[in-house]
Design goal:
With about 550 residues, the chain is of the alpha/beta class. The protein is about 40% helix and about 15% strand.
Length: about 550
């Protein structure tokens, strides 16, 4: 907050107070007693109301007569300049009027989009103001408009709420927080919530269409991402390398209210310690050797949009401390407000940026061992999404492989005249589905690329795929472990027990817990044989109740 020095006393500068409200029928009708007959008829035409006026001052003027605001922003969907001019004069102030087009004032999606855009504009104009408070009037406009104001005022744009009744204006306190009180309960506490999250496939959800698959594991991950996409909280994506974390980050951005705004990504492992700070925050001319011109960093370039911090676990500790400071929004500002300085600069710069981070490291272990700041972890992991590896979504592997192969065919066809598109043979599909793919989608893509090059015909066979993965065949979770040296310490029984347990688990997973199907996959005559083996090895499939 600004502090002014007068004489020997420190005086705290008052916080700027901003009011935002829709202009409703009641507000315009309240001024009718002060208008001429022709003006009254004009107002009636605009609001489609034949009344001769309403008792009282209307919600907006009632509030303004009882509470002071430094700035008044009114949302108008009537588009009648003459009526708005009369209304502004009648209010006795000079409101900032934002005219919008609303086709259906009861349509939540339309009202949400417009309200979010207006509030973003109002807040962005306050960048030069160190601190401001936002107030939303819930009484004017339709019930849909009031409900949307509550949603936005309790999440993306923290605000005070006001209502008027019988000539009195009162501040309305809503005693819950959507992101910390209701959302965690929805996502973490009940089986019914998980069922709700996985009800839709990615292709049915706007923004997630590029995510291929329909397995329960990917549906659950997409369901969680869909719910958090419209909130401005930070998201941490975890999972093995190659599970599609950047693809998910793009999808969350596309499904959010920031769609169409900048999406910037940085790989924190790709920059030396001395350069990552300049990449994130920018630098002034002459800040270091080679800085011939000032440059905006990614936090500024992503203003209004999303910044994706990939491989955040690789960020060195000194930069973690600086990142923590910029992720703490200044008091009284929206949760996505970032304040920072360029390298070599003194001026405070603000931007509105939503953070999505990703890592394939176990950050909890990194925190425990002192390699990652605990406070930064909790700042980034406001919402956690773990992406499943391919071996946990086997039903998705073939569609993913065919999509990758289609892209490879298109790329080769563009540059190679007479190129015949490749396809996967039956044996190749069986291999693709059964292999564990420890490198996940990235490894699958590389192997298919090699196979497309090696294949002499239009059909890719198992042999071409085996050639591509020959260096990693021993790393799958269900693959046969490599031969151990014979001699002291070697136990054939223990070795065979390990192999049997791995295949038992893999069969149960592939059969989705159906013992008869798992027995068939293992070559057993009946499910009873499998049941005895599971009991002997004390194996409980993760899907069993």
């Amino acid at each position: 907050m600004d502090i002014k020095l007068i004489g020997e006393n420190l005086i705290q500068a008052p916080m700027k107070k901003i009011l935002v409200s829709w202009i409703g029928h009641t507000d315009l009708l309240a001024m009718i007693p002060t208008l001429s007959e022709s003006q009254v008829e004009r107002v009636r035409t605009i609001v489609l109301d034949k009344a001769h006026g309403r008792a009282g001052l209307g919600p907006i003027k009632t509030l303004l007569q009882q509470e002071h605001f430094d700035e008044v922003c009114l949302i108008d969907n009537y588009a009648a300049k003459d009526v708005l001019q009369w209304y502004s004069q009648w209010l006795g102030c000079k409101p900032h009027i934002i005219t919008v087009a609303v086709n259906n004032p009861a349509d939540y999606e339309e009202v949400f989009r417009i309200s979010d855009s207006v509030l973003a504009e109002v807040c962005s104009r306050q960048k030069k103001s160190k601190e401001f408070s936002l107030s939303l009037l819930l009484t004017s406009g339709t019930p849909t408009m009031a409900a949307v104001f509550v949603l936005l005022g309790k999440t993306k744009y923290p605000a005070f709420f006001w209502q008027t009744h019988l000539g009195m204006a009162t501040e309305t306190r809503i005693p819950y927080d959507l992101t910390s009180d209701l959302l965690p309960d929805l996502l973490h506490n009940s089986d019914s919530a998980f069922h709700h999250l996985s009800a839709l496939s990615p292709q049915e959800i706007q923004g997630f269409e590029n995510i291929i698959g329909d397995s329960p594991a990917i549906r659950l991950a997409v369901g969680r991402a869909r719910l958090v996409a419209i909130r401005d909280v930070s998201v941490l994506l975890t999972g093995e390398s190659g599970t599609g974390k950047e693809l998910f980050a793009h999808a969350i951005h596309a499904a959010s209210c920031r769609k169409g705004k900048p999406f910037k990504a940085v790989n924190c492992a790709a920059f030396p310690d001395s350069l990552i700070e300049g990449e994130l925050f920018g630098y002034e001319k002459g800040a270091f050797t080679g800085a011939d011109q000032p440059r905006d960093g990614l936090f500024k370039q992503a203003d209004g949009g999303t910044l994706f911090l990939d491989e955040i676990g690789e960020c060195p500790l000194p930069q973690q401390a600086k990142l923590l400071r910029v992720l703490q929004p200044p008091h009284g500002t929206p949760p996505s407000c970032r304040e920072f300085e360029r390298i070599g600069g003194k001026e405070k710069i603000r931007s509105d940026v939503r953070i999505i981070a990703a890592t394939n490291r176990d950050l909890a272990k990194e925190v425990a061992e002192g390699r990652f700041r605990e406070d930064l972890y909790y700042r980034l992991a406001s919402f956690l999404i773990k992406l499943p590896p391919l071996r946990e979504r086997r039903s998705d592997i073939i569609p993913i492989a065919e999509s990758i192969l289609q892209r490879i065919n298109e790329d080769f066809g563009d540059v190679e005249q007479g190129y015949e598109p490749k396809n996967l043979s039956v044996s190749a599909k069986k291999f693709v589905r059964s292999f564990d793919w420890p490198g996940n989608v990235r490894q699958l893509s590389n192997v298919l690329l090699q196979a497309a090059i090696l294949s002499q015909g239009v059909s890719i066979g198992k042999a071409e795929l085996e050639e591509g993965v020959s260096g990693t065949l021993n790393f799958g979770s269900a693959a046969i472990p490599p031969l151990l040296p014979l001699g002291e310490g070697f136990s054939l029984d223990a070795y065979l027990k390990t192999i049997r347990e791995r295949y038992l688990r893999e069969a149960m997973k592939e059969a989705n817990g159906v013992k008869a199907e798992a027995a068939r996959l293992l070559g057993y005559q009946n499910a009873e044989t499998l049941r005895r083996q599971l009991e002997t090895h004390e194996i409980r499939w993760e899907g069993e109740k």
